[in-house]
Design goal:
There is one protein chain. α3 packs across α5 and α6 packs parallel to α7. The strands form four sheets. An eight-stranded parallel beta barrel has the order 3-4-5-6-7-8-9-10, surrounded by seven helices. By secondary structure, it is an alpha/beta fold. It contains eleven helices and 14 strands. The protein starts with a strand and ends with a strand. It binds iron/sulfur cluster (2 copies). The site of one iron/sulfur cluster (SF4) has 14 residues, from α11.
Length: 316
């Protein structure tokens, strides 16, 4: 099957990366057993890299999917900790809960961090220390911010980048879609491995999934794309698309007919506003004591769900 080099990291992967966010408690809330079964089917179909994060709550799903698996697999996780001690605790938890001795890539989870090289300098330092200790193979950064991605190009110690990009530029912060493409291209030229996120706008472009994935893949400096998947059929369809360019209507029409949205159970909303700053896309506001979402800019990441003390937000 196809293999792509993730920049100069030495990692060689199938270009479809399994994104585990949608199966976790922030979204579809599959059990570890159910999610693990989907992950296992994707691995059997040819996927070789899994993307998770402390925030996603899917370490149990990854562990279940890898139980007894002897084929090739790389795991990327992320820490959103604001300080060194928190980052270390997140990596230790990832190692423990996924049953690994080393995590292949650990990103500074920078979705909402505008100035990562100033505000997360201690986190990066701790991740490099853990790399020296052998607990991390490569340090990376995920980001929705154009200036942050551009700045990463001049940081050789960041080996893998996980930037937000899609054909509508939905969710891109601090610049335009084309500005993000230029920043990603600069990172690729400096030897970083690039795997993109939100090619489907978190599900907003699911009705044009083939075209949306194709647009991201048409940029040769983007080496791979992470896609969230919730069934074995979806995983196999995506593998065929990435491997052979096969995207037949019989398989894809039902997949593209799905619709996802952010659900806020407003009857239980206290209007506290805790969810508002959790949204880097600035899609949330409190109007007359109830949280509201601007569906035009919401990328369905589900991060606001974690911030709500009432547990009343869910991507469905
Ligand atoms: S409203 Fe919630 S799901 Fe939508 S972009 Fe903001 S944090 Fe993500
Ligand atoms: S955090 Fe939850 S309870 Fe508070 S405003 Fe947002 S949705 Fe409502």
């Amino acid at each position: 099957m196809k293999r792509v080099a993730l920049g100069n990291s030495g990692l060689e992967i199938f270009p479809l990366v399994f994104g585990t966010l949608p199966m976790g408690p922030l979204q579809a809330n599959l059990s570890p057993k159910e999610g693990g079964a989907v992950i296992r089917q994707a691995l059997e179909a040819g996927v070789t890299m899994l993307d998770t994060a402390e925030l996603y709550g899917t370490y149990g799903h990854v562990r279940a999917g890898l139980e007894g698996w002897t084929g090739p697999v790389a795991i990327a996780s992320k820490t959103h900790a604001p300080d060194a001690a928190g980052a270390r605790a997140h990596v230790e938890r990832a190692l423990r809960e996924m049953g690994r001795e080393r995590i292949d890539v650990v990103h500074m989870h920078g979705a909402r961090v505008e100035r990562p090289f100033i505000d997360r300098v201690d986190v990066f330092a701790e991740l490099f220390k853990m790399k020296d200790e052998g607990k991390i193979a490569h340090v990376g950064m995920s980001s929705h911010f154009v200036p942050a991605v551009l700045e990463a190009a001049s940081h050789p110690e960041i080996e893998v980048l996980h930037p937000l990009i899609n054909r509508a530029g939905m969710g891109v912060l601090g610049g335009t879609r084309d500005g993000m493409l230029d920043a990603i291209s600069a990172c690729s030229a400096s030897g970083k491995g690039i795997y993109a996120m939100k090619a489907l706008g978190g599900g907003n472009f699911i009705n044009a999934a083939r075209a949306s994935i194709g647009w991201v893949l048409s940029h040769p400096f983007i080496h791979a794309v992470a896609i969230g998947m919730l069934s074995g059929d979806e995983a196999r369809a995506n593998v065929r698309l990435f491997e052979e360019g096969v995207a037949d209507d019989a398989t894809w029409k039902p997949l593209e007919a799905r619709r996802r949205r952010l659900r806020i159970m407003q009857q239980f909303c206290k209007g506290c506003g805790d969810c508002v700053p959790a949204c880097a896309s600035r899609a949330l506001s409190v109007v007359e004591g109830k949280a509201e979402v601007d569906e035009g800019v919401c990328v369905l990441c589900g991060y606001c769900a974690e911030a709500c003390p009432e547990f009343i937000i869910r991507v469905v």
